[in-house]
Write a structure and sequence with these properties.
- With 164 residues, the chain is of the alpha+beta class.
- The chain has a single domain, classed as Peptide deformylase (Peptide Deformylase, Alpha-Beta Complex), CATH 3.90.45.
- The chain has 3 helices and 7 strands, in the order αβββββββαα.
- The chain starts with 22 loop residues before the first helix and ends in a 6-residue tail after the last helix.
- The model has no long low-confidence stretch (mean pLDDT 95).
Length: 164
Amino acid sequence: MQIITLGNELLRQKAEKITAIDEDTVKLANQMLEILVRDKGIGLAGPQIGVMKRIFVVAVQGDEPRVFINPSILETSHKTVKFEEGCLSIPGIYTNVIRSESIKIQAWNIKGRPFTLETTGLLARVILHEYDHLEGVLFLDHVPENKRAKLVEKYEKSHKDDKA
């Protein structure tokens, strides 16, 4: 499985709910965690590997890897924080993004059990970033249009040989 990159229309589509947490779902989650390690990321959503399912994985340093299936954001704090973000689907591009400082999320794990997590800091940011992927939203969508256009142009220039 390869990570798809900016320009692939799948990154702009909403992912579909997973109807059964079965052997295939567990296999997918494990493959996603392997890709995350291989590509040195901290979060990866199904759409980033062309799987249009509501699943993402996160592995923030100092915390165990987590799998989120059919997640729902229950609460976000009013307090926001600006922090630099990047994305495995937009390699080499980084910019500051303002996001809620803390969140409350509900999802299912690979054993089919629901869980609720309240978190803050980097883990909250990564979860919000990956959740956006399930909605067809990229981190660049959170910056002003003129800045976004410059970042996209920079990405396209640095990856023009990839398309040849």
